[in-house]
Protein backbone atom coordinates (compact mmCIF):
# COMPACT_ATOMS: atom_id res chain seq x y z
CA UNK A 1 0.00 0.00 0.00
CA UNK A 2 1.41 3.35 -1.06
CA UNK A 3 0.80 6.32 1.20
CA UNK A 4 1.33 9.89 0.03
CA UNK A 5 3.72 11.49 2.52
CA UNK A 6 4.38 14.92 1.01
CA UNK A 7 3.64 16.93 -2.13
CA UNK A 8 5.52 20.10 -2.98
CA UNK A 9 5.58 22.73 -5.73
CA UNK A 10 8.47 25.20 -5.73
CA UNK A 11 8.74 28.42 -7.72
CA UNK A 12 12.13 30.08 -8.12
CA UNK A 13 12.70 33.79 -8.68
CA UNK A 14 13.10 37.07 -6.80
CA UNK A 15 10.45 37.42 -4.08
CA UNK A 16 12.15 39.88 -1.73
CA UNK A 17 9.13 42.20 -1.91
CA UNK A 18 6.80 39.56 -0.43
CA UNK A 19 7.71 40.43 3.13
CA UNK A 20 5.66 40.22 6.35
CA UNK A 21 4.60 43.88 6.38
CA UNK A 22 1.08 44.95 7.48
CA UNK A 23 -0.23 45.48 3.93
CA UNK A 24 0.93 42.08 2.72
CA UNK A 25 -0.30 40.30 5.83
CA UNK A 26 -3.75 41.88 5.44
CA UNK A 27 -3.94 40.85 1.79
CA UNK A 28 -3.14 37.23 2.55
CA UNK A 29 -5.54 37.18 5.49
CA UNK A 30 -8.31 38.36 3.18
CA UNK A 31 -7.43 35.93 0.37
CA UNK A 32 -6.55 32.80 2.33
CA UNK A 33 -8.66 32.93 5.49
CA UNK A 34 -11.40 30.86 3.82
CA UNK A 35 -8.84 28.03 3.64
CA UNK A 36 -7.86 28.55 7.26
CA UNK A 37 -4.40 29.93 6.47
CA UNK A 38 -2.81 32.23 9.02
CA UNK A 39 0.21 34.44 8.20
CA UNK A 40 3.27 34.02 10.40
CA UNK A 41 7.00 34.44 10.01
CA UNK A 42 10.06 32.28 9.57
CA UNK A 43 13.76 33.08 9.65
CA UNK A 44 15.75 32.82 6.45
CA UNK A 45 19.48 32.32 6.96
CA UNK A 46 21.84 33.72 4.34
CA UNK A 47 25.63 33.43 4.25
CA UNK A 48 27.58 36.59 3.43
CA UNK A 49 30.97 35.50 2.12
CA UNK A 50 34.02 37.50 3.17
CA UNK A 51 37.44 37.76 1.53
CA UNK A 52 38.41 34.60 3.41
CA UNK A 53 36.32 31.90 5.13
CA UNK A 54 36.96 33.35 8.60
CA UNK A 55 35.09 36.51 7.55
CA UNK A 56 31.94 34.68 6.42
CA UNK A 57 28.83 35.81 8.28
CA UNK A 58 25.31 34.47 8.68
CA UNK A 59 22.48 36.96 8.35
CA UNK A 60 18.88 36.28 9.33
CA UNK A 61 15.85 37.82 7.63
CA UNK A 62 12.22 37.43 8.62
CA UNK A 63 10.16 35.99 5.81
CA UNK A 64 6.43 35.32 5.43
CA UNK A 65 4.79 31.93 5.87
CA UNK A 66 1.15 30.90 5.49
CA UNK A 67 0.06 27.84 7.50
CA UNK A 68 -3.29 26.22 8.16
CA UNK A 69 -4.45 25.31 11.66
CA UNK A 70 -3.05 21.76 11.78
CA UNK A 71 0.19 22.56 9.96
CA UNK A 72 -0.47 20.21 7.05
CA UNK A 73 -0.40 23.06 4.51
CA UNK A 74 2.48 25.55 4.40
CA UNK A 75 3.34 28.23 1.88
CA UNK A 76 6.86 29.51 2.53
CA UNK A 77 7.98 32.77 0.94
CA UNK A 78 11.77 32.82 0.74
CA UNK A 79 13.63 35.63 -0.96
CA UNK A 80 14.50 33.32 -3.86
CA UNK A 81 11.76 30.67 -3.82
CA UNK A 82 8.15 30.00 -2.85
CA UNK A 83 7.28 26.50 -1.61
CA UNK A 84 3.75 25.09 -1.54
CA UNK A 85 3.89 22.04 0.74
CA UNK A 86 1.23 19.55 1.82
CA UNK A 87 2.36 17.00 4.43
CA UNK A 88 0.61 13.89 5.69
CA UNK A 89 0.84 14.85 9.37
CA UNK A 90 -0.87 11.74 10.81
CA UNK A 91 -0.88 8.69 8.54
CA UNK A 92 -4.18 6.73 8.52
CA UNK A 93 -5.89 9.59 10.41
CA UNK A 94 -5.20 12.71 8.34
CA UNK A 95 -7.16 12.82 5.08
CA UNK A 96 -4.37 13.43 2.59
CA UNK A 97 -5.41 15.04 -0.68
CA UNK A 98 -4.73 13.14 -3.86
CA UNK A 99 -1.93 14.55 -6.00
CA UNK A 100 -4.20 16.06 -8.68
CA UNK A 101 -6.24 17.95 -6.08
CA UNK A 102 -3.03 19.26 -4.51
CA UNK A 103 -1.96 20.55 -7.92
CA UNK A 104 -5.32 22.26 -8.52
CA UNK A 105 -5.30 23.94 -5.11
CA UNK A 106 -1.69 25.07 -5.54
CA UNK A 107 -2.53 26.63 -8.91
CA UNK A 108 -5.31 28.57 -7.21
CA UNK A 109 -2.92 29.79 -4.50
CA UNK A 110 -0.39 30.85 -7.14
CA UNK A 111 -3.11 32.83 -8.91
CA UNK A 112 -4.09 34.61 -5.69
CA UNK A 113 -0.47 35.53 -5.04
CA UNK A 114 0.01 36.83 -8.60
CA UNK A 115 -3.00 39.14 -8.22
CA UNK A 116 -0.96 41.08 -5.65
CA UNK A 117 2.59 40.36 -6.78
CA UNK A 118 3.22 40.03 -10.51
CA UNK A 119 6.62 38.37 -10.15
CA UNK A 120 7.90 36.21 -12.97
CA UNK A 121 9.54 32.90 -12.15
CA UNK A 122 12.63 31.35 -13.70
CA UNK A 123 12.16 27.75 -12.55
CA UNK A 124 9.38 25.39 -11.46
CA UNK A 125 9.87 22.16 -9.53
CA UNK A 126 7.51 19.50 -8.18
CA UNK A 127 8.38 16.75 -5.69
CA UNK A 128 6.21 13.86 -4.46
CA UNK A 129 7.09 11.51 -1.59
CA UNK A 130 5.49 8.14 -0.83
CA UNK A 131 5.94 5.38 1.75
CA UNK A 132 5.46 1.70 0.93
CA UNK A 133 3.75 -0.22 3.76
CA UNK A 134 3.93 -3.64 2.14
CA UNK A 135 6.39 -6.52 2.46
CA UNK A 136 9.53 -5.42 0.65
CA UNK A 137 11.32 -8.74 0.25
CA UNK A 138 12.89 -8.91 -3.19
CA UNK A 139 12.85 -5.16 -3.82
CA UNK A 140 16.51 -4.74 -2.99
CA UNK A 141 17.38 -7.09 -5.87
CA UNK A 142 15.04 -5.24 -8.22
CA UNK A 143 16.61 -1.87 -7.52
CA UNK A 144 20.18 -2.87 -6.68
CA UNK A 145 22.88 -5.04 -8.14
CA UNK A 146 25.84 -5.55 -5.84
CA UNK A 147 28.63 -7.93 -4.86
CA UNK A 148 27.68 -11.39 -3.55
CA UNK A 149 28.33 -10.43 0.08
CA UNK A 150 25.47 -7.89 0.03
CA UNK A 151 23.19 -9.82 -2.30
CA UNK A 152 23.28 -12.75 0.13
CA UNK A 153 22.03 -10.59 3.00
CA UNK A 154 19.01 -8.46 3.85
CA UNK A 155 20.30 -4.92 3.52
CA UNK A 156 19.58 -2.44 6.30
CA UNK A 157 19.66 0.47 3.86
CA UNK A 158 19.89 0.83 0.11
CA UNK A 159 19.23 3.55 -2.46
CA UNK A 160 18.44 3.55 -6.17
CA UNK A 161 18.72 7.06 -7.61
CA UNK A 162 18.31 7.71 -11.34
CA UNK A 163 17.94 10.92 -13.33
CA UNK A 164 17.42 11.97 -16.92
CA UNK A 165 16.39 14.98 -18.98
CA UNK A 166 13.11 15.25 -20.87
CA UNK A 167 12.14 17.81 -23.51
CA UNK A 168 8.54 19.01 -23.24
CA UNK A 169 6.32 21.62 -24.88
CA UNK A 170 7.09 25.36 -24.80
CA UNK A 171 10.77 24.65 -25.52
CA UNK A 172 11.40 23.52 -21.95
CA UNK A 173 13.73 20.80 -20.69
CA UNK A 174 13.06 19.01 -17.41
CA UNK A 175 15.30 17.27 -14.94
CA UNK A 176 13.51 14.04 -13.99
CA UNK A 177 14.65 12.17 -10.87
CA UNK A 178 13.44 9.01 -9.15
CA UNK A 179 14.76 7.85 -5.79
CA UNK A 180 13.76 4.53 -4.21
CA UNK A 181 15.41 3.74 -0.90
CA UNK A 182 15.13 1.44 2.09
CA UNK A 183 15.30 3.54 5.24
CA UNK A 184 14.33 3.90 8.85
CA UNK A 185 12.71 7.21 9.73
CA UNK A 186 10.34 8.63 12.37
CA UNK A 187 6.74 9.16 11.27
CA UNK A 188 3.42 9.96 12.97
CA UNK A 189 0.87 7.18 12.31
CA UNK A 190 -2.48 6.55 14.03
CA UNK A 191 -1.70 9.45 16.37
CA UNK A 192 1.49 7.76 17.59
CA UNK A 193 5.15 8.39 16.96
CA UNK A 194 6.78 5.34 15.39
CA UNK A 195 9.80 4.30 13.36
CA UNK A 196 8.99 3.49 9.75
CA UNK A 197 11.22 0.68 8.46
CA UNK A 198 10.47 0.28 4.79
CA UNK A 199 10.73 1.85 1.35
CA UNK A 200 10.56 5.59 0.69
CA UNK A 201 9.91 6.63 -2.92
CA UNK A 202 10.49 10.16 -4.18
CA UNK A 203 9.83 11.65 -7.62
CA UNK A 204 11.24 15.05 -8.59
CA UNK A 205 10.89 16.98 -11.83
CA UNK A 206 11.98 20.56 -12.44
CA UNK A 207 12.87 22.93 -15.23
CA UNK A 208 16.62 23.01 -15.82
CA UNK A 209 18.70 25.57 -13.96
CA UNK A 210 20.71 26.41 -17.08
CA UNK A 211 17.83 28.56 -18.37
CA UNK A 212 18.04 31.71 -16.22
CA UNK A 213 15.25 33.61 -18.01
CA UNK A 214 12.31 34.82 -15.92
CA UNK A 215 9.73 33.38 -18.29
CA UNK A 216 6.90 31.94 -16.19
CA UNK A 217 3.95 34.12 -15.22
CA UNK A 218 0.22 33.71 -14.76
CA UNK A 219 -0.30 33.47 -18.53
CA UNK A 220 1.70 30.26 -18.89
CA UNK A 221 2.46 28.78 -15.48
CA UNK A 222 -0.49 26.36 -15.41
CA UNK A 223 0.46 24.66 -18.66
CA UNK A 224 4.09 24.36 -17.57
CA UNK A 225 3.03 22.83 -14.25
CA UNK A 226 0.84 20.40 -16.22
CA UNK A 227 3.83 19.39 -18.36
CA UNK A 228 5.79 18.51 -15.22
CA UNK A 229 2.81 16.66 -13.73
CA UNK A 230 2.45 14.55 -16.89
CA UNK A 231 6.05 13.36 -16.58
CA UNK A 232 5.71 12.71 -12.84
CA UNK A 233 2.52 10.73 -13.35
CA UNK A 234 4.24 8.56 -15.94
CA UNK A 235 7.34 7.73 -13.89
CA UNK A 236 5.31 7.15 -10.72
CA UNK A 237 2.91 4.77 -12.51
CA UNK A 238 5.80 2.89 -14.11
CA UNK A 239 7.69 2.68 -10.81
CA UNK A 240 4.70 1.39 -8.85
CA UNK A 241 3.98 -1.18 -11.57
CA UNK A 242 7.62 -2.29 -11.52
CA UNK A 243 7.52 -2.70 -7.74
CA UNK A 244 4.40 -4.88 -7.93
CA UNK A 245 5.63 -7.15 -10.73
CA UNK A 246 6.83 -10.61 -9.80
CA UNK A 247 10.47 -11.38 -10.38
Structure summarized in a few sentences:
Helices cover 25% and strands 42% of the residues.
Characteristics:
247 residues, alpha+beta, 9 strands, 25% helix
Put simply, the count of helices is: 5
- The tally of domains stands at 1
Which parts are unreliable, with pLDDT below 50 for 5 consecutive residues or more? none
Structural class: alpha+beta
Strand tally is 9
Radius of gyration, whole Å: 20 Å
* Helix share, percent: 25-40%
- First CA to last CA: what distance? 19 Å
- Helix and strand succession? EHEEEEHEHHEEEH
Strand order of the largest sheet: 2-3-4-5-1-6-9-8-7
Overall pLDDT: 91
Q: Name the shape in a single word.
A: globular
Beta-strand residue fraction: 35-45%
Largest sheet: 9 strands, antiparallel
Protein name: TIGR04255 family protein
Could you characterize the architecture of this molecule?
It is built from 5 helices and 9 strands. With 247 residues, the chain is an alpha+beta fold. It has one domain (2-16, 80-244). Helix 1 crosses helix 2. The longest helix is centred in the C-terminal third of the chain and has 24 residues, at 221-244.
Topology diagram in text:
Layout: E1 2-13, H1 22-32, E2 38-48, E3 57-67, E4 73-77, E5 81-87, H2 99-116, E6 121-132, H3 139-143, H4 148-151, E7 158-168, E8 172-189, E9 192-207, H5 221-244
Antiparallel strand pairs: 1-5, 1-6, 2-3, 3-4, 4-5, 6-9, 7-8, 8-9
Helix pairs in contact: 1-2
Protein name: TIGR04255 family protein
Organism: termite gut metagenome
Amino acid sequence: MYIGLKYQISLFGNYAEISPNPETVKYFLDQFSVKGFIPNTQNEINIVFGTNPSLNQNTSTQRLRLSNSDGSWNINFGSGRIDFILTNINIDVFKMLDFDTFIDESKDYIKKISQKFSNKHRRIGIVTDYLLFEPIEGLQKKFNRSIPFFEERQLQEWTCNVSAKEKVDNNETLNVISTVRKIKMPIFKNSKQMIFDGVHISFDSNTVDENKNYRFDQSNIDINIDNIVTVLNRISAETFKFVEQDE
